């Protein structure tokens, strides 16, 4: 890793599947980094990477991360974040500051409540929450008017709010393997037209 840190002009870094257990704080020296792939490692936390302000995409799938640091919200150029397959139980409110985010994967974590900050991400096109323990979606889900794909398979949802009808750009929704769904006829028709 020290050799990599010396590459100050680096814009893309892929260290996936390397049994890495921590990210050195010196990663902040890679100020031009735009894409970071650290999938399938043994990371348990994300250090303060707030100096990487050019970061556009970060993928941390398949690690052991329990918490997203508040400093993550300073990466305001992020358009894609992949945090699926971790141990997250919540997402900080400050995550809602990532207003340019278009893709967010939080699948296969331990989320029991829909993170309210997500409804502030109005540019979001893809939201993947498969395989969590969500029991409800907030009515503010209707704020995600640019959403095109919504993945909710394998949760504990018993219904969907009427405000989901505001998602006019939505073309794909997956609600398989949830609790028996009690849906209004308009919501049922809306999702039947878009189900995969």
The number of helical runs is 2
Q: Structural class, from secondary structure content?
A: mainly beta
Provide the spatial order of strands within the biggest beta sheet: 1-2-3-4-5-6-7-8
- What is the molecular shape? elongated
**Total beta-strand segments:** 8
Structure explained in plain terms:
- This protein is mainly β and 196 residues long.
- It is built from two helices and eight strands.
- The chain has an eight-stranded parallel β-sheet, with no helix packed on it.
- The longest helix has 8 residues.
- It is elongated.
- The model has no long low-confidence stretch (mean pLDDT 94).
SSE layout:
Elements: H1 2-5, E1 12-14, E2 35-37, E3 57-59, E4 80-82, E5 103-105, E6 126-128, E7 149-151, E8 172-174, H2 185-192
Parallel strand pairs: 1-2, 2-3, 3-4, 4-5, 5-6, 6-7, 7-8
């Amino acid at each position: 890793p020290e050799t990599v840190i010396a590459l100050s002009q680096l814009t893309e870094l892929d260290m996936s599947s390397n049994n890495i257990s921590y990210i050195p704080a010196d990663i902040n020296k890679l100020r031009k980094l735009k894409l970071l792939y650290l999938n399938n490692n043994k990371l348990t936390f994300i250090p303060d990477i707030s100096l990487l302000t050019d970061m556009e995409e970060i993928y941390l799938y398949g690690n052991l991360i329990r918490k997203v640091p508040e400093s993550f919200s300073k990466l305001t150029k992020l358009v894609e974040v992949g945090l699926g397959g971790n141990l997250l139980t919540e997402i900080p409110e400050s995550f809602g500051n990532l207003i340019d985010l278009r893709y967010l994967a939080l699948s296969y974590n331990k989320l029991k409540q829909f993170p309210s900050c997500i409804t502030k991400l109005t540019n979001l096109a893809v939201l993947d929450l498969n395989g969590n323990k969500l029991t409800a979606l907030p009515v503010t889900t209707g704020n995600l008017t640019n959403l095109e794909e919504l993945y909710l398979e394998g949760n504990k949802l018993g219904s969907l709010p009427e405000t989901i009808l505001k998602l006019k750009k939505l073309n794909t929704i997956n609600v398989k393997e949830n609790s028996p769904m009690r849906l209004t006829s308009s919501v049922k028709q809306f999702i039947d037209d878009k189900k995969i």
